[in-house]
Structures are given as C-alpha cells and as structure tokens.
Amino acid sequence: MSSLALQAVVSGLAAGSIYGLVGVGFSLTYRTTGVINFAQGDLVALGAYLCLWLWTLGAPLPVAMLVSAALVGLTMGVVERLALRPLYKHGIVFAIMSTVGLSVTIQSVIQLIWGPVALVLPRMTSADTAVVLGVRVSPSQGINLLVGLLLIAGLVWLLERTKVGRGMRTVARDRDVAALLGISAARLFFLSFVMSGALAAIAGGLVGPDQGLTPTMGLPLGIAGFTAAVIGGLGSPLGALFGGMFLAVAENLAVLYLTPDYKDAVAFCLLVVVLLIRPQGLLGESGATARTV
Question: Global pTM?
C-alpha cells in the first residue's frame, strides 16, 4: 500500500469514528423505539454551537463539550417526552416524520441565535502533525479516534452488561414481555434519546474545529451517520462504528484514486450495495424486524 493510500486509510479511521458516533445515535433510538431520528445530524451542530458558547463564557473546551452533551441530551429527552411520545399511539411513521420538522427547527434556532456566518470552534490540541510510520497524524485525529472508540465501547458494555442495557434489549424485542417483567418502556425510550443526543453533541465538539460551524453543518454528518448505521446494521452500536470507518475510508480512497466529485456518491453506492446483498447490515442480526412502540 502506498503512503498516500495509507494516509487516506488513517484519516478515514479518524473521520469514521465521528460518523460512528452519529450512527450510534440512530441505532440507539431505533433499537429501543423504532424511531429513526432524522434530526440526529442537527444535534451534532447544536452540540458544537453550545460548546462554542460555553467556551466564550470561560469554560475549558473539554468541560464545555461535556456540558453541551448534557444539555443536548436533556433537550432530546424533553422532546421525546413531549413531542414524540404522544405520536407513538398513532403509528411510528408519525414520530419519524416529526423528527424532520425537528431538524428544520434546530437549524432555524441556530441561525436565529448565532447567525448564518460560519464560526470557528477552537482546537483542544495543537494543529501540528506527527509522522508515524510514514503517515502524518494530527492530535485531533488521535483524539477523535480514541474518544469514538471509548464511547462506543462503553455503550456496548452498558447494553450488554447492565440492567439498563438488558431492559433496552427486552423492550426492543417485545414491549409486552418487558411490561410483564416490570420494565418501564417509557423510561428507556427517554433514556435512549438522552444518550443519542449526548453522543451527537460530543461528535459536534470533536468535529467543529476541523469543519467549522454553520447552521447546516449537521446535514452531511447526519447522512453519513445514517449510512454508517445502515451499513453496519441498524440497531448495532459496533455496526455503526464499523460502518462509519468503512464509509470514511471508502470516501478518502475515492478522492485519492478517482476524483473529489465522487466522494458524496460513495455513501449512496455503498448503501445500495449493502441493502441489496445484506439488508440487515454487515453486523446486523439476521431476520431483524422493525421495532414497534
């Protein structure tokens, strides 16, 4: 493998961890409630703007990122409780369509408060790069990759090893059985949206310094995150991480060997191929069915 190709792969793994964090948000809400939250990408933008606002108030960037994650997570919990939950009884499609309206609302609120002009979120680390095995790696790339891996590993542990995670799996499989076991589906619905919002906000704080802040910055990230979740297996956190890295590496290689004009087409092509060959995703459960609430 040439040095340029290796550089594209390493950069793709770092970018893919961000895609994975966004994709995990899609997987969490779908796994528990059946809702595909099309505002997930805009929560990334909201988290980035809140992080910048808190930094201007004097908070260190790591603290600002954590506080913005808490704020976005709680906001999504309130949205689930007040706006989405009343729609569940009418059919899951109504809740899904309402997230499209939520996406537009978030973009409008961001533009109203911070304006349409692009803003810059400061870096937590130096912009200098180090050469490792012939590949240039920036500290921000290392942090993105490390944070993404740690958060998703922690989430997998939560889902597989804790009472909350077992409750989420039970609710996802059969809500009636969960009720007989004394598991509160409503509480887990709320928690899944809180967690997905917090993860999106952290992704915004990580990607903001490299991408810049605009009201619509979440749109391409939302598309990439959704594609990553579907490629890996919608409902699987590990699948979202794998799908994100696979997608980002493929995009970088397309830019390297073809032309940058084809980068945006990569996600669509991969999505179609995976859905045709393995509809449940590369790491998804065979025969998985849509969740109902």
Answer: 0.91
